[in-house]
Amino acid sequence: MQKRVMSIMLGFAALLAVFLLLFNLPEKEEVAQDSHPIVVPDTPVDIASAESIYKSNCMACHGDEFQGAMGPALKQVGAEMSKERIYKQIVNGGGGMPGYEGRLTEEEIVNLTNWLGSFK
Ligand code: HEC
């Protein structure tokens, strides 16, 4: 009898955990994204790393000379866009571009952003 009560309670706890995971976490993330303006830290650019990530993830759409292809040219992107907007575009994608959140590390995205931000 006591075992049954215990397993029912465990079942409820598990359900609650699933609920919290499914419904609470995304909401919190959204709030964090919307209410905190992004500030891209000014870390020194690791050019070798940025180039190699660019080659394997971005070049197909933005061109080997940043001249653009399916995606827009990036030659002057640092003059046209703030680093915050570049960062957001890489993280979220949009307009035909995939988002790289979870596919590249935060460090890699910040490095790419600072690298592209210097294209003026
Ligand atoms: C599947 C093709 C594709 C891939 C892969 C891709 N992009 Fe894009 N990218 C696009 C398109 C299309 C746009 C235009 C989006 C829009 O106009 O809303 C874009 C826009 C951008 C912009 C904004 C430029 C502007 O002038 O609006 C930046 C910065 C950018 N991409 C960087 C990257 C980086 C860095 C990577 C690799 C990590 C990457 N992209 C991978 C297709 C791609």
Automatic annotation (TrEMBL):
Q: Which Gene3D superfamilies match?
A: Cytochrome c-like domain (1.10.760.10)
Q: Which UniProt keywords apply?
A: Electron transport, Heme, Iron, Metal-binding, Transport
The Cytochrome c domain sits at 45-120
Q: Which SUPFAM superfamilies match?
A: Cytochrome c (SSF46626)
| Gene Ontology MF, one | electron transfer activity
- Sorted alphabetically, which InterPro entries does this protein's record hold? Cyt_c-like_dom, Cyt_c-like_dom_sf, Cyt_C_IC, Cytochrome_c550/c551-like
> Does the UniProt entry include the keyword Iron?
yes
Pfam families named among the record's database cross-references: Cytochrome_CBB3
What protein is this chain from? Cytochrome c
Q: What organism, scientifically named, is this protein from?
A: Paenibacillus arenilitoris
